[in-house]
Design a protein that fits this description.
heterohexamer; A alpha/beta; B alpha+beta; C alpha/beta; D alpha/beta; E alpha/beta; F alpha/beta; A: six-stranded mixed sheet; 6 helices; E: alpha/beta; Rossmann fold; six-stranded mixed sheet
């Protein structure tokens, strides 16, 4: 069982990321997952978060209490949700957008310039998919195949190629770095 | 002379020079100011603000004539100009 | 019986449509006997919602011919009227205008009892044909309840049209809480005598003012694709064979 | 849970924006997306208020729900953010109860014309003295891009996934035919003219309507693949034409067609309070 | 605070309930009415129009009830006491704005003249089936104050009370009458203006820049200012902080909405009003309100004549409900008899508050308008016969209807 | 009757509750939705708009909620299954028309994805404060059925059930989901059409001239026909007799006649046992029973786990149908247990019904939450612990002081410096 939190701004694909992870786990990895979202009235720029609970059995309580993984794509999101991160959890951040506090407990922290990488790929909207590739490689909670299928399944057909490329870029970034 | 207090041509026409102020943190990088500045004073920068947008930067500051279009067209209230000085036009 | 209803029943007969296909939605209660005689289906709904209710009937079964009677002259239901006009929802709206003319003419009355008008005494009412025309109605007309023959023809014509049609009928008396068969015959006579028929007049010029005679006539008569046609065409274009068009029996169980 | 930190935004000391007195700077940044024209319209409005030379103390602004519905919250007047579509009704109450006030309704197309359509046409009919600024971005943006009564035919929206099947409203025509005394339309690009128009309308007795065509960069233009806010602005630049006094029935807007802007109607009609007072004095005489 | 002398028709008059209601409103200082005409509340508008010129009050007939209440809330913020009058269907249309009134904490008064429902029902026949709607009709959590007058005189008195409550607690107050009282003409005594107690609006008197529209006093009621006084305040129907700025967080929802309930719940004892007759040694207590009062009082008399120990509890304020009083009585009496012109609304509240200590007998709808005295007497007899503690409401079904 | 394969998009999806409801509606045979966008329910409308045209169904976005619901009732009488989709404020606007629906006995479904209230409240976050409104929101006496699903899968399943119930009892059926469920994504299995049971409309089959639109069958529900089939219908929102004619005239003549509106409440009250659906667990030796519905049920599970960990015997009762309320069941439990704990995302609505039905035999503890979030399970656990230890009979609903309340009002929390 794992509890995952994505946090950032509206427009960064935070909720879509949650859906893709949930879908990868429950449809393609045949586990159980529940995805919840919280967003403000703004379409863009408001605080936004999504939470995924992964489990081998049916998820009853659908919320994150102590997160095992925190993916922060904004300073605000990091500040708000860092305290609820498990002492042994994993922290993933966009290094251009988040400045971290000194490490706490046995938290493993990884950073990636996901927005910048996405811009290199042509459009910043791929930032979340780059992050998802990074997430998949770093946490191994969901299989790479499952995630790729979920990504392909969640975006318009004409963008599948770009998204898979972005996913791979994030995945490779982790592998190359470590 | 009833029509002009000052003889015509004695006082040189003046042109205002403006100073642009940008609140980078408020900017959402829409690019309106850059596009519609009549004097091409502004350009988008490469730096990120904390929300991940690229705010504009001043590249041709001395060309600003304090027309205020950037101020009016900015949807974020994050840019405005003030009058720095007025200089006489060279012939 | 109320002359409007008589004209309506006769108008249907003139149009030659099948009675069972006609559904009347109204926010004024009709006498059951009238409906029985007319041989149509009748729904009496909450005030102002006749057009919206009719929209549902029409889209639920596009083969129906829907007629909406509005007793409150677009007060509560004004929004449904303008939007249905915009959509060009295929429907005939008979708008019973019950405002009290004398009061508009400037005689202040502290109380407007018993026939409370749909508007305050000092407010001018809508230029209903113009409003309907401007939001897209394909047919507009105005008659007084005493123009029985004209009204009958008008109703028959409007029932033949495909699209949103509005007929304003001036008839003092009925409003949402009074029975439609109560009519102030003296006022009705006054209306009739003070009216002048100008067919095809620009709807801008048919506002009812105290100074001028009431303009009656058929004002608008144009062709425009009705909602269901537009819907079928657009979705057919995009979806192709996958689309099951509305209308006929194809979409129904 | 840490108290406070999540709520208080750190407001940094800053230079003073020239509109500091008219805008609630403590609430910025606002909620609108990058490339949205509402902010531009608000700037024009603030400039117009300044220009109109009216008593700001006696001025209040009412908004409904939606993206544009948030405008009231950013303007430093007595400001009301009410329920969906009821801005005009709310404002009517204010104006009639205290005719000394200047009332402005600032809201969006869905709010004013769809759910509030009835109040719109009735307030125009009554000629209640107020200024209505209607931002038209062709879509419901706050709820995520649903079809609006202003969405052009065949344009896409989330609730018309196969193209819009309803012809849109021509807002100036609707306002005109219901009785508005001042009707104008500008795009978010025409900031100067919009400012002047707002200043003029604020001093006009009666029901005035100004429609502002504004880009919705996140929903309308994205669903219809029209680029970002800047591209929409460029489109306005190339495709809008100023025709003052044009007959309002010719002002339909199709999907990416020419937009006619200008001041179309400017006439005199007795306002609601005029008729009311006339009637009231008549009643008093009748009693004597 | 003194009332406008012209507004108070001091003296003894014969007025219908609707007319008395408007007189009460004028006496309370009401200066604005926005409404849409509907049976059987029309006479309120007519009376208002007739008297508005001399009182100096404003009236507007809106296009529907939705806008009527919106206009009333708007007008209230200009500093004028405002009201609207309607009946069932119109009241249903107002439900969204009842919520807005609560959220903006706007003092205003809604007169609901109940008719037979549901939907259009019977427009010229009494009903009491909007009672629960008054409490629960809008979405979200809120508390309202609802008064149920039982005669034209009470219509007058309670309307004044309603305005006072609304100013005191900054909340919409509902006066829920019905067609029977609205049209019944009776003697109404209007006291001199200085004999009428008026609660003034709670204005903020501090520095302009320190004003927060939703900062609460100790009793959780915030202070108001008028539009145009230069305070430049912002209010919103969204969940907001003291400044009136929206904040979409759980904490703010608690901070904002909970006190809106508390300001009523904490003052229930001050708000709740009822009239007790002979409850000291009663075995059976009739709980009644509004139009049923007449029949209930008659039935009480008849039963007493038969030697039954019967008392009466008339609810003047229906919401908040007098939980404590009912619970207290339940421990003493055998049963409650609740006559209502509906199929069971307030009776379920009585059932709730009696905690199984007393049986609850419900007398539903009579056939000709209001409840029948005979039915109530028979129900009292039934209550006496019933020795067992029954769980749930026992319904006394009128026998007369089957003829 | 089985579902039409054309309507059922069989497969396994990962979707949110709103979308599942859209799929469910089509699978149930819904042919018309009139709606108006409102957060957080729009996704359901969008879904239906996307999938409907391929099945011959239509979505129309009306000008407002008043129009939506009126059109839905019209469509219902034209012979098709219909639904509307809304949230709190829109739901309030529909109140007048719900009365009309009850009166003209039009079967239709309302999907209400509840959000934080009152008024505009918190549009993007959850609430459960429309529960009493569902029952009491319109004027006059009527009864409705309301269902509270707790997951996207249930939103699919119970949307179908809602349609079935509405056809069976010819009354408005409300699906009272909340934002949490509406925006929660989970695996949803859409079964093949032949596994979906559909209640057909109760059409009248007799001779035309003998048809009475409001003549009830044995179960008090009348049979329907379609408008436009030549029955010369007279349907009114006024109180009417079996023919559908307004009853006003007969009353004026002074005849003492029973009002036919009685049947509108009786048809639900007398069939309540057939309608009510509950799940219970751990009741055998329970000392305290947690009564919950919708998302609160899933939150309560964690609270119950914590309490059970402390050795407390807790039963779990979930109301799937909230209205009609299970009076008997609560009353029966009240005589066996010490107390009820009711967590709901409001400041007390259904808890008063529990209090009413417990007839003073068990204490009732409310764990409130104002909305815009869900309970902290610790609160529920503590409330359970308190309830089991409370010896006194308390003659009122005990409002449990939650951590959130303490934090906001006692913890020095300030929104404005």
């Amino acid at each position: 069982m794992a509890e995952i939190r994505f946090a950032g701004y509206g427009g960064q694909g935070i909720i879509r990321s949650g859906i893709i992870v949930g879908k990868g786990a429950s449809i393609y990895d045949h586990k159980f997952s529940t995805m919840n979202q919280a967003f403000g009235p703004e379409a863009r720029g408001g605080a936004c978060s999504s939470q995924v609970v992964l489990s081998d059995t049916k998820v009853l309580y659908p919320y994150v209490t102590v997160s095992d993984v925190l993916v922060a794509m904004s300073q605000e999101g990091y500040d708000m949700f860092e305290p609820e991160l498990n002492d042994k959890g994993i922290l993933l951040i966009d290094e251009d957008l988040v400045k971290t506090k000194p490490p706490r407990g046995k938290i493993k922290s990884f950073s990636i310039p996901s927005t910048r990488l996405a811009e290199e790929l042509g459009n910043r909207v791929f930032a979340n998919v780059v992050m998802l590739g990074f997430f998949t490689a770093a946490t191994k909670l969901v299989s790479k195949e499952g995630m790729e299928k979920a990504v392909a399944d969640s975006v318009p057909e004409r963008f599948i190629k770009h998204n898979l490329k972005a996913f791979q870029k994030g995945y490779d970034y982790y592998k190359d770095k470590l | 002379m009833r029509y002009w207090e000052v003889p015509f041509g004695k006082e040189k026409p003046k042109t205002p020079i403006g100073e642009i102020h940008i609140l980078k943190e408020r900017c959402k990088g829409c690019g309106f100011c850059v596009e519609y500045c009549p004097k091409d004073v502004l350009e988008m920068s490469d730096e990120f603000n904390s929300k991940g947008y690229h705010p504009p930067k001043i590249v041709n500051g001395e060309a600003c004539v304090n027309c205020g279009l950037c101020e009016t067209i900015c949807p974020e209230f994050s840019i405005w100009c003030t009058l720095k000085e007025e200089v006489a036009l060279e012939n | 019986m109320n002359p409007i209803i008589t004209a309506f029943v006769n108008g249907i007969k003139k149009s030659g449509l099948e009675l069972s296909n006609i559904v009347v939605v109204s926010d004024i209660p009709f006498e059951p006997e009238v409906i029985k005689e007319a041989g149509v289906d009748f729904f009496h709904v909450t005030r102002g919602r006749a057009i919206a209710f009719g929209t549902g009937l029409k889209l639920g079964n596009p083969d129906l011919k829907v007629v909406a009677f509005i007793g409150d002259l677009m007060t509560l239901g004004g929004n449904h009227l303008v939007h249905s006009g915009r959509r060009n929802m295929e429907m005939l709206v008979i708008c019973v205008n019950n405002f009290i003319y004398k009061e508009i003419a400037g005689t202040p009355a502290p109380s407007v009892s018993p026939g409370f008008s749909a508007f305050s005494t000092f407010e001018r009412p809508f230029n209903a044909p113009h409003l309907a025309n401007s939001c897209g109605a394909v047919y507009t007309a105005r008659w007084t309840a005493l123009h029985t023959n004209e009204l009958e023809n008008s109703i028959a014509n409007a029932l033949d049209k495909r699209g949103f049609s509005v007929i304003e009928v001036l008839s003092p008396g009925p409003n949402f809480y009074k029975e439609i068969n109560q009519v102030d015959s003296e006022l009705l006579d006054f209306y009739y005598k003070n009216s002048v028929t100008k067919n095809n007049e620009d709807t801008r010029n048919v506002e009812i003012t105290p100074e001028e005679k009431i303009v009656t006539g058929e004002f608008t008569d144009k062709e425009k694709s009705p909602f269901i046609d537009t819907y079928n065409a657009q979705l057919g274009k995009i979806l192709g064979d996958k689309f099951i068009p509305l209308g006929g029996q194809s979409g129904r169980d | 849970m840490e108290p406070l930190k999540m709520i208080e935004k750190d407001i940094q000391p800053m230079d003073v924006h020239p509109m500091n007195d008219i805008l609630r700077m403590d609430r910025l940044p606002h909620i609108w997306c990058p490339g949205c024209g509402i902010g531009t319209a608000v700037t024009a409005f603030a400039a117009g208020l300044d220009k109109a030379n009216i008593d700001l103390k006696k001025t209040c602004i009412v908004s409904g729900i939606g993206c544009t519905g948030r405008v009231a919250g950013y303007i430093k007047l007595d400001s009301f953010h009410t329920t969906h579509g009821r801005g005009i009704a709310f404002a009517t109450g204010i104006k009639v109860a205290n005719p000394d006030l200047k009332v402005i309704v600032f809201s969006g197309d869905g709010d004013l014309i769809s759910i509030g359509g009835n109040h719109f046409i009735h307030a125009a009919r009554r000629n209640v003295n107020m200024l209505v600024i209607c931002i038209n971005n062709f879509i419901y943006a706050m709820t995520g891009g649903q079809v609006a009564p202003t969405t052009p035919l065949a344009a896409y929206a989330t609730t018309s996934p196969f193209g819009c099947v309803e012809p849109p409203f021509n807002i100036p025509y609707l306002a005109d035919s219901s009785g508005a005394v001042y009707v104008a339309r500008w795009t978010a690009l025409h900031v100067r003219r919009l400012t002047n128009s707002i200043a003029e309308a604020l001093n006009k007795p009666g029901f005035s309507v100004i429609e502002v065509i504004s880009p919705c960069a996140m929903y309308y233009s994205r669903i219809n693949r029209l680029g970002d806010g800047l591209d929409m602005m460029k489109f306005y630049h190339d495709n809008s034409e100023i025709r003052h006094g044009e007959d309002t029935k010719n002002l339909d807007i199709g999907f990416q067609t020419k937009i006619i802007v200008g001041k179309f109607v400017d006439r005199e009609r007795p306002t609601y309070m005029d008729s009311y007072n006339k009637w009231l004095s008549g009643t008093k005489k009748a009693e004597k | 605070m003194k009332t406008n002398l012209k507004a108070v028709l001091t003296g003894t008059h014969t007025l219908s309930g609707n007319e008395a209601c408007i007189e009460g409103a004028f006496a309370a200082g009401c200066l604005f009415l926005a409404a849409y005409p509907i049976m059987p509340a029309i006479e309120t508008i007519e009376r208002y129009l007739k008297r508005s010129a001399e009182v100096g009050a404003t009236f507007i007939q809106m296009e529907d009830e939705i806008s009527a209440l919106a206009a009333v809330i708007g007008a209230s913020w200009t500093g004028k006491k405002s009201m609207t009058a309607t009946s069932g269907p119109g009241f249903s249309n107002m439900m969204e704005h009842l919520g807005l009134g609560v959220m903006l904490e706007t003092p205003c008064v809604i007169i609901d003249v109940q008719r037979t429902g549901p939907s259009l029902g019977i427009p010229n026949r009494a009903g009491q089936a909007d009672m629960m709607q008054a409490r629960w009709g809008s979405h979200g959590d809120y508390e309202v104050i609802t008064l149920a007058p039982g005669s034209p005189q009470e219509m007058f008195d309670f309307t004044i009370k309603a305005f006072n409550f609304s100013e005191k607690y900054r909340t919409p107050v509902i006066v829920i009458s019905d067609e029977y009282i609205a049209h019944k003409k009776e003697k109404v005594v209007i006291p001199p203006a200085d004999g009428i107690k008026i609660t003034p609006r709670r204005y903020f008197k501090g520095q302009k820049d320190k004003y927060l529209p939703f900062k609460r006093d100790k009793d959780f009621v915030p202070r108001m200012v008028d539009i145009g006084d230069g305070f430049k305040f912002h209010v919103t129907g969204l969940t907001h902080d003291d400044k009136g700025y929206p904040i979409m967080l759980e904490e703010c929802q608690e901070y904002n909405v909970h006190p809106i309930l508390w300001k009523i719940r904490n003052h229930v004892d001050e708000i709740v009003e009822f009239q007790e007759t002979g409850t000291v040694d009663a075995e059976i207590v009739i709980v009644y309100y509004g139009a049923t009062s007449e029949a209930a009082i008659k039935a009480m008399k008849q039963a007493k004549d038969m030697g039954i120990k019967v008392g009466g509890l008339k609810l003047d304020v229906v919401w908040p409900f007098p939980d404590k009083k009912i619970a207290e009585l339940a421990e003493k009496v055998k049963a409650f008899v609740v006559p209502e012109i509906n199929y069971g609304q307030i009776v379920s509240e009585v059932e709730r508050c009696s905690y199984g200590n007393a049986n609850v007998i419900f007398v539903s709808h009579g056939e000709k308008g209001i409840n029948n005295t005979d039915d109530i007497v028979s129900a009292i007899k039934l209550a006496l016969k019933e020795k067992e503690r029954k769980k749930g409401i026992i319904e006394y079904r009128s026998q007369a209807g089957s003829s | 009757m089985k579902a039409n394969p054309r309507d059922v998009n069989t497969g396994t999806y990962y979707m949110d509750g709103d979308v599942a409801a859209g799929y469910g509606a089509l699978a149930a045979g819904c042919r018309f939705i009139g709606g108006y966008p409102i957060t957080p329910s729009t996704e359901a409308a969008e879904t239906f708009a996307r999938i409907a045209p391929q099945a011959g169904a239509v979505f129309i976005q009306m000008e407002d909620e008043l129009g939506s619901i009126a059109s839905v009732m019209g469509a219902s009488w034209s012979g098709v299954k219909t639904m509307t989709i809304t949230s709190g404020p829109g739901y309030s606007l529909m109140m007048e028309a719900i009365g009309l629906g009850a009166m003209i006995e039009a079967p239709f479904v309302i999907l209400n994805i509840q959000r934080g209230g009152p008024s505009t409240g918190v549009p993007t976050k959850t609430g459960q404060a429309d529960m009493m409104q569902a029952r009491w929101g319109s004027h006059g006496d009527y009864e409705v059925i309301a269902i509270a699903p707790d997951s996207p899968q249930e939103l699919f399943d119970y949307t179908i059930k809602a349609f079935n119930l509405s056809e069976k009892y010819r009354c408005p059926v409300m699906i009272m989901a909340d934002e949490c469920v509406g925006h929660m994504s989970e695996k949803v299995v859409v079964p093949p059409a032949e596994e979906i049971e559909i209640e057909p409309r109760r059409f009248y089959n007799g001779p035309k001239e003998k048809y009475l639109p409001f003549k009830p069958d044995k179960d008090l529900v009348p049979k329907m026909v379609k408008a436009g089939d030549g029955y010369n219908l007279y349907i009114t929102g006024l109180v009417h007799d079996e023919k559908g004619y307004p009853i006003k005239n007969q009353l004026e003549k002074g005849k003492r006649q029973k009002l036919p509106t009685r049947r509108l409440v009786d048809k639900i009250r007398l069939n309540a046992d057939k309608i009510i659906e509950l799940t219970e667990e751990g009741m055998d030796d329970a000392e305290v029973v947690v009564v919950s519905y919708g998302i609160s049920y899933r939150v309560a599970i964690r609270g119950i786990e914590i309490a059970r960990g402390k050795g407390i015997k807790v039963g779990n009762l979930r109301l799937i149908t909230v209205w009609p309320f299970p009076d008997k069941k609560i009353s029966e439990l009240a005589s066996k247990v010490k107390a009820f704990v009711v967590p709901e995302i409001n400041y007390g609505q259904i808890v008063f019904e529990v209090e009413r039905c417990s007839h003073g035999q068990a204490n009732v503890v409310l764990v409130p939450h104002g909305g815009a979030g869900v309970h902290n399970p610790e609160d529920i656990a503590e409330a359970i612990e308190y309830a089991v230890n409370e010896k006194k009979k308390i003659r009122k609903v005990v409002e449990w002081k939650t951590r959130l309340e303490k934090f906001v009002f006692e913890g020095g929390y300030k929104l404005n410096k």
